[in-house]
Structure formats: structure tokens, C-alpha cells
């Protein structure tokens, strides 16, 4: 019967317009318990990043390039989490996994575009640290407010233009295979594999996007820090070296936190063929949940100005 239906779909050209997200297959009985860390991490992400944005925007002394870029990163973290976690919670709590094709494409577009934007901002922050340490006297003249705004807009447009073609690559497909997606959110190839058409263009474009992140973001970040470390260790004063390293510490932690889970997830998908499917899905969610939750905590702990401003917000001094 199923074979007959599939054969009919293939010949009539009928395409699914509604899909069903299963959440985490194999852990259906544990969905309520799994939802607890999802919910807690989402609340911490919203509160932490919102507080970070408020702190930076309301404190004049924090209107420096590094903190303004951090503000952009915090905003992107909120968008990334909001694009995924509420949908996952709806599946866990209410079994509301039904999603239209257009909404599915919109969700994956938001996820991919935000991820690329964050990667670009991390590159810009590495450039910021390079200028601050290697050319401190020219720092304020190079990174003016106008230039910071242009950098933010350019980074967003680069991310938008890189992901936008995928919408048309998916829209051209006919989804006549299964419409059950064993995941908590929509992803490009995860959706494309249910098409009857040839999806080699989708696969190769996905590879192109990954290579663009590697070539345009990861490699320049690495080169920036090689130059930064060379400049730091050529400083005559040990105290100056310590202060310079400390200014880069938070950013390095966030870089590792952002790319680390993604690289690990990619490796497990490529080589971990015997790993249960629910582990792959949990790892993909870790890549979405953990960095946005920990980014404001890391900067809050390691940056004195932010700590003092947050303390003032919650515990104002009485005159």
C-alpha cells in the first residue's frame, strides 16, 4: 500500500507542503525530561544576552568597538535560539511537530543566516583585537562608529546573500518521499533528501557554504591570532603581555565554544555511522543551545567593566 502511494506520488508530481518534526527519535518517552535543559538554557540565553545588550548600550564607557561587536553577537544569539528552541519545546510538550514547507524553509534560513553572521562577527572581533594590540595608537581612528556600522551591515549582507540561494534550490524540488523529519528543527540537506529530484546542486552548494566559512572566517581568525601572539610575545614588559593576553581570553573562549561543537558534530556525522541517530540530533542541538547561553556568561565573568555595570544595575549604590 505504501509502495503504491509512493509510486502514485512520483508519477503525479504531488509534493508535500507539510512536514512533521519528530523531536528526538528514540527518546520520545523522555521528551518531557529532555525539555528541561532546553527550557533552562533558553531562559538563560534570553536573560543573559538581553542584559548584555542593555549593559553595553546604556553604559557610555562600553561604547567601544569590541563591546559594540559583542552587542551584535548577543543579538544574533537571541535570534538563533528563538529560531529553534520554542519549536523544540512545542514538540516536547504538546507534540506540535507539524510545520509547513514555507515555515520550514524560513526556519532553516534564519538558522543558517544567523550562524554565518555570528561567524563573521567573530572574525571582525579578531580583527578588532589585532588592531587594538598591534596598532593601539590608530585603534580609534581605524574603528570609528561609522565604520563599525558598515562592518555590521556588510557582515549581515554577506550572510544573507550566501544563504538566500538555498531558498530557490529547495523551492525547485518536489518532495514526494517521506515527510517525517527526525529532528527538532529544519536543516537544508535534511529537508532536501526527501525530494524526488536530483539534489547534487544542493549538496555542492552546502559544501560551498562550509568552505566559505573555513576560508573566509576560520583561516583569517587563525592568521589574526598568530599575528596577535607574535606581537604579544615581542612586548618587553611581562605585565603588558599579561594584559594583552587577558583582553583576548574571552574572545578565544567564544571562538572555541562556537566552532568546537560544530566541528565535533560534523565529524560524528561523517565518521560516526554506528552512533545512534538521537545522539546526532542531541549534538546538533548542543551546537545551537550552548554557545548562546555561555557567551554572555564568559564575557560577564572575564570583563571587569561589564561585571561592574551589571552589579550596578542589580545593586545600585544608595547615596
Automatic annotation (TrEMBL):
It is a multi-pass membrane protein. InterPro entries: GPCR_Rhodpsn (IPR000276), GPCR_Rhodpsn_7TM (IPR017452), Olfact_rcpt (IPR000725), OR51/52/56-like (IPR050402). It is found in: Cell membrane; Membrane. Keywords: Cell membrane, G-protein coupled receptor, Membrane, Olfaction, Receptor, Sensory transduction, Transducer, Transmembrane, Transmembrane helix. One of its GO terms (molecular function) is G protein-coupled receptor activity. Residues 48-299 form the G-protein coupled receptors family 1 profile domain. The keyword Transmembrane applies. GO terms for cellular component: plasma membrane. The chain crosses the membrane at residues 32-54, 66-93, 105-127, 148-170, 203-232, 244-267, 279-299. It holds the Pfam family 7tm_4. Odorant receptor. PANTHER family: OLFACTORY RECEPTOR 52B4 (PTHR26450:SF89), OLFACTORY RECEPTOR 56B1-RELATED (PTHR26450). Belongs to the G-protein coupled receptor 1 family. This is Olfactory receptor.
Amino acid at each position: 500500500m505504501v509502495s503504491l502511494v509512493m509510486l502514485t506520488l512520483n508519477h503525479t508530481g504531488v509534493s508535500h507542503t507539510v512536514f512533521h518534526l519528530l523531536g528526538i527519535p528514540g527518546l520520545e518517552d523522555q521528551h518531557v525530561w529532555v525539555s528541561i535543559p532546553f527550557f533552562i538554557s533558553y531562559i538563560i540565553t534570553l536573560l543573559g544576552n538581553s542584559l548584555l545588550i542593555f549593559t553595553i548600550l546604556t553604559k557610555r564607557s562600553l561604547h567601544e568597538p569590541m563591546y559594540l561587536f559583542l552587542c551584535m553577537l548577543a543579538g544574533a544569539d537571541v535570534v538563533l535560539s528563538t529560531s529553534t528552541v520554542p519549536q523544540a519545546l512545542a514538540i516536547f510538550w504538546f507534540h506540535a511537530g507539524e510545520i509547513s514547507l514555507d515555515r520550514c524553509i524560513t526556519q532553516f534560513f534564519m538558522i543558517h543566516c544567523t550562524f554565518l553572521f555570528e561567524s563573521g562577527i567573530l572574525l571582525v572581533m579578531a580583527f578588532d583585537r589585532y588592531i587594538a594590540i598591534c596598532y593601539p595608537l590608530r585603534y580609534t581612528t581605524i574603528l570609528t562608529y561609522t565604520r563599525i556600522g558598515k562592518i555590521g551591515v556588510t557582515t549581515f549582507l554577506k550572510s544573507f546573500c550566501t544563504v538566500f540561494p538555498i531558498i530557490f534550490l529547495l523551492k525547485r524540488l518536489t518532495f514526494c518521499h517521506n515527510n517525517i523529519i527526525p529532528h527538532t528543527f529544519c536543516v537544508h540537506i535534511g529537508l532536501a533528501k526527501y525530494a524526488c529530484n536530483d539534489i547534487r546542486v544542493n549538496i555542492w552548494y552546502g559544501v560551498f557554504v562550509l568552505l566559505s566559512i573555513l576560508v573566509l572566517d576560520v583561516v583569517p581568525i587563525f592568521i589574526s591570532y598568530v599575528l596577535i601572539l607574535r606581537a604579544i610575545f615581542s612586548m618587553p614588559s611581562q605585565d603588558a603581555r599579561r594584559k594583552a593576553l587577558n583582553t583576548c581570553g574571552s574572545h578565544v573562549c567564544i571562538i572555541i565554544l562556537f566552532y568546537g561543537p560544530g566541528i565535533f558534530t560534523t565529524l560524528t556525522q561523517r565518521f560516526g555511522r554506528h552512533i545512534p541517530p538521537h545522539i546526532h540530533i542531541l549534538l546538533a542541538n548542543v551546537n545551537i543551545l550552548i554557545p548562546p547561553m555561555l557567551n554572555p556568561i564568559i564575557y560577564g565573568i572575564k570583563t571587569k567593566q561589564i561585571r561592574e555595570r551589571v552589579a550596578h544595575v542589580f545593586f545600585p549604590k544608595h547615596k
